[in-house]
Amino acid sequence: MGCEMIVIDKVNVFKCLILRRDSRVTALVKHGGNIYRALLRNTGRLYDLIYPDSQVLCSLRSGGKTSMNIVGVVVNDEAALIDTYIQMRSFEKACSRDLIPWLKGYVILGREVKVGGMRIDYKIRRNDTEGYLELKSAVLLR
After folding, report:
1. Whose C-alpha in 33, 38, 85, 102 is 20 to 30 A from the C-alpha of 136?
2. Spatial CA neighbour of 58 closest among 33, 77, 83
3. Sign of torsion, CA 56 59 60 62?
4. Angstrom distance (rounded) from CA 92 to CA 111
5. Where are the domains of the chain?
6. Single pTM value for the model
7. Which of 78, 77, 31, 22 is nearest to 50 (CA)?
8. Which phi and psi angles does 136 have, rounded to 5°?
9. Topology of the domain covering 14-81
10. Which helix (H) or strand (E) holds 72?
């Protein structure tokens, strides 16, 4: 049984080299002989993926203190998506198109909803059933 590929979103990316991390959410990268500050939209530590001389995939951004987003990382000649914003946007589109079998019929009622003293990624509903959903991501290193 084959798997049909469905394009949910397209992002133009280019390879950069990590020079060093500035903070938990920014890094200095080198591209075409120039040095840029890039935003890392992932709150994970990612020490095994983002380190000096590692290759990352970046996209241009406008505004803010950074000129690029780090959207992926090159691991063993393959690309791994690490940008949680793109992951969330892709999940939302897939959910709205009923592309996730175990979520068929569910609609997203809210994003980053407060429950008690916590923030939960999504509040969802199907018919009379409501629930909460957290997205998690991982990169399998081979």
Report:
1. 38
2. 83
3. negative
4. 10
5. 14-81, 94-133
6. 0.84
7. 22
8. -130, 150
9. OB fold (Dihydrolipoamide Acetyltransferase, E2P) (2.40.50)
10. strand 68-75
